[in-house]
Specification:
The structure is a homodimer. Chain A contains 15 helices and two strands. By secondary structure, chain A is an all-alpha fold. The longest helix of chain A has 44 residues.
C-alpha cells in the first residue's frame, strides 16, 4: 500500500471510529458494548474511506464534513452484517478477537446487529447539522436501504449456494455483487450525495464502488484459501469447510477431470483435516483458477480506474487515493 | 370491538397486506418465503391501521393514499422484530403457526428479519410515486430509525430484566415504551407525515401512539398470564417461564408477604409445572396487581382519547375509529 493511501486510511479510520463512538450511545450498557465490540477491534474502514474520499474529491473539505455521518452509516451497516454473518457461518474469530456471538452469546449478538442496523439509518440525521437537507437524507436513505435489501439477498444466495454444486460463474458474480459490491457501491454513491452531485455523477461513483467491491470480494475469496491466516485474521480454510461456492471452486470444478472433481466434492462443505483442505487448495491452483480469479479482479480494478479518470474533480489527491484503493483491493495480502 | 373498527381494521389490513406482497419481492425464493411467513399467517395490523387512519383523519383519502408505504413500513418493521424476538425468546408458535426459526431454521429466520428491516426503509421510496417528496421521506426515515433504535433498547432491557429482581414500575414503563410504545408512536407520527402536517401535530400524534402502545403492552402482559391461549395464539404462561418482569410481577413482589414473594421467585424464570404457574398467577391476582395494571392501562387509554379530541380533523369517522382503537387495546381478549 502506498504511503499516501495508508496515511489517508488511518486519518479517515480514526475520524469515523471516533465519530461512531460519539454517536452510538445509549442503554442498557451491555447492548452498546456488544454492538461496538467488533468496531472496537479495528478493521480497515474501507467503506467509510470511500465515502469520505469521494466526497472530498468532488467538493473538497466541505463535502468531506458533510460525508461523515454517511461514512459512519456504511461502516455501522457493514458491522451489523458481520455480526449476523458470523452467527450464520458459525465463525469464532474476526479481527483477531472472538466474534460477537462468542463473546456475548447468540441473543445479544443478534440484537447488537439489529441496533447497528438502526443506528446506520439514525446517524444520517446528523447530516442536517452539517449542511445536508432533508432531500439529501431522503436520497441517502434510499441508497442505503436498496443496498440493505441486496446485502440480505447476497447473504441468502451465499447460504443457498453452500448446498448446491451447480453454481456457475455468473451466479457467483451476481452473489458477490449483492453481498459485497452493493454496499461498497452505496459507499461511493453516498460520497456523491455528500458532495451534492446529481444522479448521473452519483451513478458513475456507484459503478466505481461496484467494481471495487466485486474485485475486493474476489480477492477475499482468494485470500480465504491462499492467504496467511496470521495476516487475514480469519480461520484457515473456513470457506472450504463451509462449502462456499467461490470463483475458485467453480472454475476448478469446470476444468478438472472427474477424479479430481470428486476429490474436491468430497472435501468441500465437510469437516476434513487440514491436510485434505491443503490438497484441495493445490488442485484448485492446478486448474488455473487462481490465475483466472486474479485476472478478473485486476480487470475490474482497471475499469474502476477508468471511471475515476473520467470525473471532473476538485481534489486530485483524493482521486489518487481512490485510484490506489482500487489497486490495493486486488494486491493486498490481508 | 365495534363494527366500525372491525370493518376498518379489515379493510386496512387487506390493503397493507396486499401492498406488502406486491412490494416485497426478490430472490432467492427461500429468503422471501421465510420473510413473509409470519405476515402470511395474519395479525391484526394495528400499526399500519394507525398510520392509515391518522393520515385519513387529518387529510382525507389523499393522505390515506400517501400513507400506504409508510403503513407498510411499520408493519414490515414490526414483523422483523417478531422474527428476531421469537429467536431470542425461543418461542415456537405465533399467530397459530410455527415461528420463523422453527419453520426455516435459525439462519434463515435471522436473515429474514434483516431483510424485512431493510424493506421497511426501502418501501418508503414508493411514497415518491404517491405525492410525498424527498423531504417527507427524510422525516419519515428519521422517525422510523429513532423508533428502531428504541425498539432494540427495549428488547435489550426486557432481556436484561429477566435476570434481575430489582426492576421497578418505572423501569418497566420505560422498557415497554421502548419495546412497544416507540413503534406505535412512530406509526401515528408517520400518519401525520403522510398528511403533510407540521412537527407540532406530528408530535401530538406521537403522544397518542405512545399512550396506545404502552396501554397495549400492559394489556398484553395481562393476557400473557390471564388470557386464553386459544384466543391469544401464544403459549400459556410463557412470560412466567421466561422470567419477564411485567407490571404484574413487579407489583405483586412489592405487595405480597415474604413467603408468597419467595414462592413467586421460585417459579418465575424457571421451567415449572402448569400447576405451579397457575398458583403464581393466583398469587399475583391476590396482590391486586391485575386491577392495578388494568387501571393504568385504562388511564393511558383515556389520555390518548383526549389527545385525539384536541385535533382539528377533516374525517370524523377516522377519528372515531382511532378512539375505538384506544379503547379496544385495553378491552381486548386477544
Amino acid at each position: 500500500m502506498s504511503e499516501r493511501l495508508e496515511r489517508l486510511l488511518d486519518v479517515y479510520a480514526k475520524m469515523v471510529t471516533d465519530y461512531i463512538f460519539k454517536m452510538v450511545r445509549g442503554r442498557p450498557e451491555i447492548l452498546y458494548k456488544a454492538s461496538l465490540h467488533l468496531i472496537k477491534a479495528g478493521g480497515k474502514r474501507l467503506r467509510p474511506f470511500i465515502t469520505l474520499a469521494t466526497a472530498r474529491m468532488l467538493s473538497g473539505t466541505s463535502g468531506e464534513a458533510r460525508a461523515l455521518p454517511l461514512a459512519a452509516a456504511v461502516e455501522l451497516f457493514h458491522n451489523f452484517t458481520l455480526i449476523h454473518d458470523d452467527i450464520i457461518d458459525k465463525d469464532e474469530f474476526r479481527r483477531g478477537v472472538p466474534t460477537t456471538h462468542v463473546a456475548y452469546g447468540l441473543e445479544w449478538a443478534l440484537l447488537a446487529g439489529d441496533l447497528l442496523f438502526a443506528e446506520s439509518f439514525r446517524v444520517l440525521e446528523d447530516g442536517l447539522e452539517r449542511g445536508l437537507g432533508f432531500e439529501d437524507l431522503g436520497r441517502a436513505m434510499l441508497i442505503l436501504s436498496r443496498a440493505a435489501k441486496r446485502v440480505s439477498e447476497g447473504q441468502a444466495f451465499d447460504m443457498e449456494f453452500e448446498k448446491r454444486w451447480d453454481v456457475d460463474i455468473n451466479d457467483y458474480l451476481e452473489m458477490i455483487y449483492l453481498k459485497t459490491g452493493a454496499l461498497i457501491e452505496a459507499s461511493a454513491m453516498l460520497g456523491g450525495i455528500a458532495a451534492l452531485e446529481d444522479d448521473e455523477v452519483v451513478s458513475l461513483l456507484g459503478e466505481y464502488g461496484r467494481l471495487v467491491g466485486i474485485a475486493f470480494q474476489i480477492k477475499d475469496d482468494i485470500l480465504g484459501i491462499y492467504g496467511d491466516p496470521a495476516k487475514t485474521g480469519k480461520p484457515v480454510y473456513s470457506d472450504l469447510r463451509e462449502g462456499k461456492k467461490t470463483i475458485l471452486i467453480i472454475y476448478a470444478l469446470n476444468k478438472l477431470d472427474n477424479d479430481k472433481r470428486e476429490k474436491i466434492k468430497n472435501v468441500v462443505g465437510r469437516k476434513a483435516s487440514e491436510e485434505e483442505y491443503r490438497e484441495v487448495a493445490e488442485l484448485i491452483r492446478e486448474s488455473g483458477a487462481l490465475k483466472y480469479a486474479e485476472d478478473m479482479a485486476y480487470s475490474m480494478s482497471r475499469r474502476a480506474l477508468r471511471i475515476l479518470d473520467s470525473l471532473d474533480v476538485v481534489d486530485e489527491e483524493s482521486r489518487e487515493a481512490l485510484r490506489e484503493l482500487a489497486v490495493f483491493v486486488v494486491e493486498r495480502d490481508h
